[in-house]
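>> received
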Amino acid sequence: MSSHSQTLYPKGREVGSTEHNWCRAVLGGTGIAVLAVLTSKHPDVPRLRTALHKLQNSHPILRSRLHYDPNASTFSFVTSSSPFVQVKSFNHSTTCSILENLYNQENQNISPLQLILEHELNQNAWTSACHHPNNPSFSTKNDMFFASIYALPGARWVLVLRLHASACDRTTAVSLLRELLTLMGTEEEETGTQGQKEMMNKGEVSLAIEDLIPKGKAKKALWARGVDMLGYSVNSLRLSNLKFKDAKSPRSSQMVRLLISPDETERILAGCKARGIKLCGALGAAGLIAAHTSNCRSDHQRKKYGIVTLTDCRSILEPPLSNHHFGFYHSAILNTHVIKGAEKLWELAKKMYTAFTNYKSCNRHFSDMADLNFLMCRAMENPGLTSSSALRTSLISVFEDTVVDASNDQQTQVGLEDYMGCASAHGIAPSIAIFDTIRDGRLDCVCIYPSPLHSREQMQELVDNMKCILVDAGKNANAHES
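>> returned
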């Protein structure tokens, strides 16, 4: 057991190392998790509040507050005995005012759902933590879960859930939305939702990921850790990035969306299946090829890029956790690849996916966890260690497994028309973070980037190029590339 589990708090615990990193990262703007749901039915606010309170009762992490001890510079989860989240409502007039402030020449063709998502990604309720206690904005306790409703013209509404990343990885976000729709769409059965059945009456926040790693999986010799740390830090200085548009101005998170038709998605997935790889390999390869094309105007110009693959560890922890154990239980694997400009999508995708799985089979997602956490902290403390002080850790991040979702009666009952989920990335992060979902057979990727470090035009061009690369490869999915 790590030292984090030895210091216990009443109805709570001190955060683990990975969670602590998210506490530090959120202060700078990375790790604000947001779910935004567009609906054609006016949300029943009392019913919504009741549903959210049931979720808080089912999942102690949702009814916890983040407590900061300025004397020890430590964070802990302090869990309330009762649910407390409130729903903040913005009427039509207020929503229009918010949207008008967001609209500009760059955003004129952006949907209200996307603008509200971006707006929420940049609402940082946690910036007051870690400030000096003499500062009037200082706070030692911060909620980790917020809910808002925005009224749009044309009888549409956007429901937004915003969470701290230490309490919400992508698996948590997916389960949270599904459980909420169940509670909102139908009268809850006496037996409760799956999440409630698993977590009811436990009343405790689950242990941190470091405390659940199987024995020996995170072990690494001291010399090996030193070599790896040196390798990661030196390589990070040599990695290529997308061209930075404005590296000095204050940053915020923005997004572009990558949508591919069901037929084209099916062909891409068939190409992945034929080569024994997952979609993350194809997405990562398309991202690297598109970025290299953008950076290099001449063929065969070699550049090294970094790609981070996030993998959900719940099923391989000890004891294993289900998807209904909320919190942050992902780990990261960083791979680097040299791109010269003549790569074919499937060839590169196979190479990248193989490199990832080789690292994973050697338990690098566990053994490198402490190293990557340490380096992430050092970069946050010393932005000058990164190119142009941009705090870019890699070119791109992807998830090992794609979320698969299909329309159902629960979604229809609440009038769900569209939704997006992602996390902010304008502090320490990659240049583009991809949150991929296959919805009703259609590939739908929310791609987050830091602005104005990168411009919307620049990132839209990159994502459009990725789409063309993926679609063209799908047409040739059965062709054998040399």
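>> The chain has a mean pLDDT of 88.
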